[in-house]
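step=encode ok
step=design start
structure_in=
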């Protein structure tokens, strides 16, 4: 993916993500390479170490979410997800 593609997915400004990409590359978590389709664009690739850290973060996140919602009924959890998805859609349709 290009930097602008990732920025759209993360709902952040390209400049914000660009600064983060520089730090991630410096720390060995990201590799940037020129796009063969667009000479102006750079493709971003996570390193194996970054993927490993992402998997660890996902496990921690799931564990913490399970703790937070352990006493919430499944139907309420599903409704909460629907509500949050609606909020994200509204943000996409009407950015601040």
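sequence_out=
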């Amino acid at each position: 993916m290009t930097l602008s593609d990732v920025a759209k997915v993360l709902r952040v400004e390209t400049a914000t993500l660009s600064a983060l990409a520089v730090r991630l590359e410096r720390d060995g978590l990201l590799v940037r390479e020129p796009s063969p389709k667009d000479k102006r664009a750079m493709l971003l690739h996570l390193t194996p170490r970054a993927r490993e850290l992402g998997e660890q973060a996902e496990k921690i996140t799931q564990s913490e979410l399970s703790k937070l919602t352990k006493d919430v009924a499944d139907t309420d959890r599903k409704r909460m997800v629907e509500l949050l998805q609606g909020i994200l859609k509204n943000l996409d349709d009407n950015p601040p």
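step=design ok
step=annotate ok -> Residues 33 and 46 are 11 Å apart (CA to CA).
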